[in-house]
Amino acid sequence: MIEINNTTKQKINIAKTKRVVEAFLRAYKKADFTVSVAIIGPARMQKLNKTYRGIDRPTDVLSFAGTKEKGQEKYLGEVIINIAEVKKANKYLEVFGLKKAADYIFYFLLVHGLLHLVGYNDDREVDRLKMLNLGERFLEEWL
Predict the structure, then answer these.
(1) Residues with Cβ < 8 Å from 96, sequence gap 6 or more?
(2) Helix (H) or strand (E) holding 114
(3) pLDDT tens by residue, 27-74
């Protein structure tokens, strides 16, 4: 099951978001797990980032691994996306004439957060680059 909570006024394609998460879960052999996705604004993201990472500024995406069990379900965790950062990144792509779908950044951040939930880490540059590559390859196949 996929739970989506959009606390912003920004419209997102819920059906497509669910399809991307489902495809990711199948690809990573986690199809029987539940994932929560939250879309929030920058002020709330800054508060979460400060509370959980000690960094007093908004970020683009946060992931919180689940306990593996949420009631009777297997719970992989939650991905939280800052919609303001998505909009900023999309404008950046437009300025440089990059031909990406308008919602590419949203799904890229979603997949990046999901990669964290299945155990990937980007603390080191080599690991960050690996995650970026995995995210791009996944989206090339599924978008």
Answers:
(1) none
(2) helix 104-117
(3) 999 999 999 999 999 999 999 999 999 999 999 999 999 876 555 578
Per-residue DSSP letter, 70: B
CATH code, domain with 73: 3.40.390.30
Per-residue DSSP letter, 96? T
Give bridge partners of residue 35 from the DSSP assignment.
2, 77
Question: How far is residue 103's CA from residue 81's CA, in Å, rounded to a whole number?
Answer: 13
Domain interval for residue 11? 2-142
pLDDT in tens, 66-113: 876 555 578 999 999 999 988 877 666 665 555 566 688 899 999 999
Q: Which two structure tokens, joined as six digits, stand for 27?
A: 């690809």
Please state the φ and ψ torsions of residue 135, each to the nearest 5 degrees: -65, -45
